[in-house]
Each structure stands twice: as C-alpha cells, then as structure tokens.
Amino acid sequence: MWAFLAPQIIKPPSSPTRRLFSTSRFSPKSPLCSLSSNNNQLIQSLCKQGNLKQALQVLSQEPNPTQRTYELLILSCVGRNSLSDGLRVHRHLSDDGSDQDPFLATKLINMYSELDSTDDARKVFDKIREGTIYVWNAIFRALALAGEGLEVLGLYRQMNRTEIRSDRFTYTFVLKACVASEASPELLTKVKEIHAHILRNGFESQVHIMTTLVDVYSWFWCVCYAAKVFDKMPVRNVVSWSAMIACYANNGKPFEALELFREMILETNDSFPNSVTMVSVLQACAALAALEQGKVLHGFILRRSLDSILPVINALVTMYGRCGKLELGQRVFDQTKEKDVVLWNSLISSYGIHGFGHKAIQIFKEMIDNGVSPSHVSFGSVLGACSHAGLVEEGKMLFESMVKEHGMSPTAHHYACMVDLLGRANRLDEATKIVEEMRIEPGPLVWGALLGSCRIHCNVDLAERACRRLFELEPTNAGNYVLLADIYAQADMWREVKRVKKLLKARGLQKVPGRSWIEIERKLHSFMSVDEFNPHYEQLHALVFKLSTEMKEKGYVPRTDVVLYKLDEEEKERIVLGHSEKLAVAFGLINSNHGEPIRVTKNLRLCEDCHTFAKFISKFAEREVLIRDVNRYHHFQNGACSCGDYW
C-alpha cells in the first residue's frame, strides 16, 4: 500500500551546479583529461559489472570523478548492501566538495536509508548548504521509513519557513510520517493540517496523494474522513479503491467494505480488482461469516489467477475458517506448495477458534517439522487454541518452549493467552501469579483476560482488582464497566451494579449493542436486540416466543440471570428472548431449506441463555446451528455444542 515510499526518480538538473561537479579541471586537449575520462569510464564499467572493489581501487587514482561515476558507485554500494563501502565513497565526495551537489546528496541519503543508517543520512542532509526539494524529500522518506515520524514533521515545519515548496512526493512522505509514530490526537491534528495544505496548494486532483490520505485517516480510525476524501476524488485507480475497502474492512465495517467492492465492480471492468483488493474483501466476508459470498470471491480469484499469491491464500484459509468451513480452508492449504509461516498460522488459528485444540497443536508441530520457524503470532494462535479447548498442561509447555526452545520473549499477548487459559480452567491463583511475575508491564490485554475469567467464575475481589487497573489504562472502554456490572449482578450485589452503571453514564460511555448477522442466498441480514424498524421484527419475536414455549415443555429454562437489571422474571425473560442471535436463528429457520446449516455471527460473547436456546433448537428443529461470537465458534447439533459448555 505504501508503494510511494520507493526512492524518487530524479532527473539531474541541467544547472550550473551540475556542471560544476561534472566538468573536468583539465583542458580537453590535456593528456591528464584523457586519463581522467578513461578512469571515469572504467569505474562506471566496473560498477555495471558488479566489481565494486575494483571500482573503488580505480577511484583512489581518479582526481576528478564525474557525477555519473559517483552515482553508479553509490548505487553499487546499495546493491552490495555494503555500508563500509558507502562510507568510503562518501568520504571521496566530501574531499572534493561533491557532497554539496544536491543530486548526489539525494543519492547519498537514499543509499544510507537503504543501508539502515539513518544517522549518516541525517549528517548528509545537515551538511548540505543549498538543499532542493529532492533533498528534503529524500530525508523525509529516510526518516519516515526508520519510524522517526516526529522528526519528519519537525523538518517539514522547518522547510515551510523557506522558499522551497512541497511537491506530490513531499505530501506522501509527511503523511506517512504521521503513522510512523504511535497514534495520538496531536498527530491526527497534524494530518488535518497537511490535508488543508494539500487543498490550498491545489493537489486534491493527485490520486496518489489522496489515496495516501485515505490510508492515513484509516490508520487513525477516522473512517468518515477517509470516506469523504475518497468520495471527492475526481479520479480513482485500483490502489484508491483498495485503500477505501481496506479502511472499512480494518475498522469494523465489513458491510460497507462489501458494498464498496460491489460498486467498484459495477463502475470498472471486473478484471480491475487486484490481490490487495481481494485480501480486504475476503477479510470482510470472514468478519460476517458470509460463506456464499466468500465462495463467489474464491471463484473470481481462480479465474484471475490470483490463487498463487500467498496473502490471498492466507485470506482464503482464514475466511473459510471463520465461516465455519474448515474442510475448505484445509483444502486450500493442502493445495499450496510453498507455505510460509503466515499460512500455517492461519490454519492453526482456524482450528483454534473452532475448539479443536489438539488439531491446532498437531499442525503447529507439523509446521516446525517442515522447517518453518514459529513466529510470535504462531504461539499466540496455538495458545489461544489451548485456551478454547481447556488444554492447560499443553499450553503451559508451549509457553515455556517459547524461551527454552525458540529463544523468543513472550509479549503481552502471550501472557494474556496464559491468563485466559488458566482463568477459564478456574485456576485463578495461577493466573494471578503469572500477572504478578510478568517481566513486562501488564497491559489492558492481560488485565482484560483476568477480568473475563473472573466473570466466568464470579470472583468479585479479583475482578475489582483487575478493574482498578483497567479503568486507569483504558478509561473509555465501556466493556470493562459492563463486565464488572455483570459480575456484581451474578453475585446479587445490585447496589454495586447501580454504582457501576452511574459511573458508566457519568463518563459518557455506552455499552456496545448486541448485533448478529446471517447470510441467506448471498444476502446479509442484520439484527439487533432493539430494532423496531426491522420489517421482520414482530414476526421473529413471535416465532422465538412460540419456540421457547414449546421448548419449555422439553426442559428449556430461560437463563434470566444474564439480565443486569433488578426486574421481575417475566420482564427478564422478555429481554433474553429478544437477543439478536435468537432473532437471527429464527430468521434462518424461516428462510432456509430444511437440512441447511444456520450460520450466525455475533459481535459480542454468546450469552448463557442463547447458548442453551441454540442447543434446544438444534435438537428439536433438527437443524445444525453454527454461531460465531467474538471469541470462538459454537457448533450446535443434536442438543449439544462443540465447546462442551466450556467457553
């Protein structure tokens, strides 16, 4: 996506400056001039042949290297990845004053950037007395690639105080600098300032710049700003379409991502989407468990011969896994000859979210046996699989192997996986000990995992301890307040429930509403617990009520304890029967053929009552029901769930 960070192609200026550093100090008829010319030609020829060492030997005998000679020497140093040779060439430039040539200074900065020596690049920039826009762009690019975003912005302010004016490359580099540092409101303000500068200087028609702006706003989670930029673009190319689709897919708006993809197909030739586009669209399908649409996309990928591109294959395996079709994901994996660690991770994760912990561990071991070294993501995936399957001892051994066998230091994510693994198994003392003995600072992930475990086992004291830290670390995360209130409600501590709700309201926070999706005949349908504008609302409520009445005769007892309000039982039952996943399941029963699995996606954790409800539906309606919540998959069949009631 950041193709603009490739080195700028710069035409040497036909100015007195260029002639100053390329003209021989000898007269054309001088024998020394002829010798100098021959040496320059020899150095250039050796560089083109890849003989850098010999070229440098000849350079030491050449009193007047030309600009072209220096340029080829610099490029050869990059090609050989030799910083020592680059420094040697730089010394020659400094000795004869050629380091003041803006063209060669730009080449030097690019060289040092490629050789990961940003400090030397900065020295070149600081020493040049008359920098052109090309020199400024080169240092912006070098620093942005090195993650020195704030330094770029400081230099950009400095440049704006000179007579040098930004060009289209300048804006892309300084925008990239804004995402080279940790996101903050101050940096977002800077992005908006650069955006205004772009508009004032008439660059809004430059598709390259505006696409970068879409990317940057996406990185700051400003989807509405990105969409406004995209909508106003007079010209769009595949990169700009892909950037906006990725913005939606990466910011929790999969519906919008799929809709924009359809718009892209209608407005352009269907061969227009590329592999980057397809990865984002498959990601959106995975988020919604839109299996049928995912299959259509798979067909498109095969027709366009994109099935040999590893990121696309990874996205396909993930999509099938998250849509509940593990066998199709496994088939894509098996048909791939060259498998990288990312592809192995996709398969491990897919089995993990379905609760097949032993299978995930088996694949993890197969990966190592095939000579592929596990990454941090590999361990996160396999530890997550152990957590979902309750494989405590296996998870502990894998965690220990990170350091002992693979020399990897656990991150906060790995510690969170271990806390979750032990906490779900009601080994809260061990989970707490891990938090206390961590070698790094426990962050929101770790404390959040501990709080989630407290909710499962209703441990009020430990939950309060976790929340004290969480309220400091992420004061605007409403989910932590809701979980604590849930734990208080389980313990019949209604005064505390009321206190937490007041705190939530005082801080202007709102609980994320429950939402579920189901795909019927390639069309996605969305349901919310309170959605009276939905034309199917009354019909679905009536069906759910009818089903619950019939199932009560078979033993179904509504779990009204999940309602965080002190109400009478009848009112609590009315609330739980209106949960979005029940409405989605009911919609599936009405609109799908008998024998077809019902696939539902939920944006939050599946509550205990909906879990029980789905088990009864699978038995008495004789339908396979698959519900994917925020954590894992639940396969309901013949009155039982694949999770074994462990989730």
Automatic annotation (TrEMBL):
Ranges that cross the membrane: none
Pfam families in UniProt: DYW_deaminase, E_motif, PPR, PPR_1, PPR_2
Keyword Repeat part of the UniProt annotation: yes
GO MF, any single term: RNA binding
Classification via SUPFAM superfamilies: TPR-like (SSF48452)
Superkingdom, taxonomy of origin: Eukaryota
Protein name from the UniProt record: Chlororespiratory reduction 2
Organism: Pelargonium fulgidum
Lineage: Eukaryota, Viridiplantae, Streptophyta, Embryophyta, Tracheophyta
Gene: crr2
